Amino acid sequence: MKKLSAAVLAAAAMGMLFTGSAHAETNPRCGSVTQIGSTGYMKSGGTTIASVKQFKGCNKNWAYVYVWDSWRANHRNYHIRAGIWTRTSDGAVDYNGNDSGAQELWSSGANTLGVCTTATGEVFGSGFSYSGHSDERC
Residue 113: what pLDDT? Predict the structure, then answer.
């Protein structure tokens, strides 16, 4: 019994150390999405500031950016962008930006399920710019 209680306490303590991770992921334009590929991260030095993920659903690819609570607590004046890129595009084929310092942002949705895509994201403001991307999915 004592060993079980210690294990439960240790697990709870570990959970408290990792607060601020991405967790929202409710697409307002498509109720049923599934993450494809691995999550990308935006970092400032050793600090993770945001996550970038790619999803599929409603016959589209979606980029998703989530700014972590731990970074956002000390940064309020920033903008975020989310987009889908293809292997052959010179720019984002699907793009969405937000100027309000929001915590999360979905792209507009790209009709690109038949080609190789990557989700990209950016968090930027006066004097700083961080970007990241998910892995490519074909």
Answer: 94
